[in-house]
């Protein structure tokens, strides 16, 4: 007899029926039967309204390609034009048409730190990061076809003076200034949900969503408040009560899983976490000037005693404000 719990766990992980069957020494027909009989569940994207690729305006294929690229770049630097296949041209054209350039795409997504993780190799063999590479909005990926050095915009003597800037893949990392998350935090958030959407369990068109919405007026740019959602789900969730939204949009188990993960990150039991979110909902707009994290405010207001989660001690906001004032 097949271990249903294990099988469900694998399916939740995003494994195909065939793979689950193989892992459990069963046949994929057996898994299909259990799914059809309601003993196992497969989460599909819903409410996505994503047009098939053949229709214009689909983000599906191109944005998944970018997602893969970012996933790789989060592990180690990548050289964009060493991935030249058909996708390279299709996606490059999409990025140019939709966003102007990959540099503006990353900035729009608050992922500027990837500018230092993605490199281009020029025909002259020099490597430059996107941060240093010039834009050319008419070209593929919105990028100049030759390096700053070949364009004559960086002189040979500059290259000689700054060899580390051009050749060293392990150059200093950009610090968190305007970006929503650092690269490490981005990695954490994404891997927490296996690089998939927290709700639909697909890897398509992933965006980052604030669980407690920004519009509620709390300080909520911290990675423990961020979950990956598909573009469609993210806009459906918008500024709604996140738990209510989950309840009416997905299964009890998926809701439970997300609540379990987020309550753990907040040092709360699941019940406490739900009260915390309800409290935030009831106090929308009441603490816009409070520099504290909502969990600290809630703890004080309800007089509960529990150790504050570790993110409370790792506050970047002052640093960011100072840098912005300085600049
Ligand atoms: Zn060059």
From TrEMBL:
Gene3D superfamilies (UniProt xref): 1.10.30.50
Protein name per the record: HNH nuclease domain-containing protein
Lineage start: Bacteria, Bacillati, Bacillota, Bacilli, Bacillales
